[in-house]
Design brief:
Elements lengths: L56 E2 L2 E2 L4 H14 L3 E5 L5 H12 L5 E6 L15 E5 L18 E5 L5 H11 L6 E4 L3 H7 L1 H9 L5 E3 L14 E4 L6
Parallel strand pairs: 3-4, 3-6, 4-5, 6-7
Antiparallel strand pairs: 1-2, 7-9, 8-9
Helix pairs in contact: 4-5
The protein binds S-adenosylmethionine.
């Protein structure tokens, strides 16, 4: 097709961080055999041989958390023993199933809540939804978050939707987080620090009386880079 007037172009930034396909597909090696002969062991290619972008999965669901991030979140979940995990950004649903399975393996009774403005891409089978609930909400409309009140603590709140983050952080501090609960900004801090350092520093600093950065987890993976915050004790006003 070379007629550029034939259709409306989608905004490709819609797919950034995601890819176009929420379903997981096993890697396909197109330029080499999977069974490499051992008498040519020394000549085998050393690169991955397939796209690393949608490589991570959990039981057949795409999971957009790399292994270092998974390890750090495992440690945090084991330490905190959360009764609720809220994640903004569901996409294929892999991380919801991963959190649910992880907490279940640890013997915890944790409710995992996934929030997205478009839940249609969630790939979790209906009979795999135990302890997972999906809620439609738009980060740009905080009134749609009212449904999140009265959740059990300890609680971990992860922003993996990357829209209106600091207003959501303020809403979470005011309405949701108790002392010791977590608010995590995934992926974005290094980009914001690169492109808008003054805003970022100013915004984070404005939360100094209500949140701290937890230095056990803040430097554990590039996805969590300086984005792991813990609710401080509430002061009497
Ligand atoms: C990076 S993906 C989530 C990946 C998932 N948490 C994981 O780790 O596998 C981001 C998701 O945020 C959602 N999203 C983007 N903007 C949003 C908004 N304004 N409100 C709610 N969800 C939004 C997108 O629909 C997308 O599914």
């Amino acid at each position: 097709m070379n007629d550029y007037s034939a259709e409306e172009f989608l905004d490709l930034s819609k797919f950034s961080g995601l890819g176009e396909d929420p379903a997981y597909h096993p890697p396909v090696l197109s330029d080499r055999p999977r069974d490499w002969p051992l008498d040519q062991w020394d000549e085998a290619p050393r690169d991955l041989g397939y796209s690393d972008f949608s490589r991570y999965q959990w039981r057949g669901l795409r999971l957009l958390k790399d292994p270092d991030t998974q390890a750090a979140l495992h440690d945090l979940v084991f330490e905190l023993k959360p009764r609720t995990i809220v994640e903004l950004g569901v996409y294929g649903g892999g991380s919801l199933a991963w959190f649910r399975d992880l907490t279940r393996l640890m013997g915890l009774d944790t409710q995992v809540i996934g929030i997205d403005r478009d839940l249609s891409r969630c790939q979790i089978p209906q009979d795999e939804m135990h302890n997972i609930s999906l809620r439609e909400a738009d980060c740009n409309d905080l009134s749609t978050f009212e449904q999140l009140k009265d959740l059990a603590h300890p609680l971990i709140f992860i922003d993996d939707a990357h829209a209106n983050t600091f207003n959501i952080m303020r809403w979470a501090v005011d309405h949701l987080l108790d002392e010791g609960d977590y608010f995590i900004i995934e992926d974005m801090i290094p980009y914001w620090y690169r492109y808008s350092p003054q805003h970022l520093i100013q915004y984070l600093s404005s939360f100094r009386d209500v949140l701290s950065m937890d230095m056990v987890y803040a430097n554990t993976s590039p996805q969590l880079d300086r984005g792991v915050f813990r609710r401080l004790p509430k002061k009497d006003r």
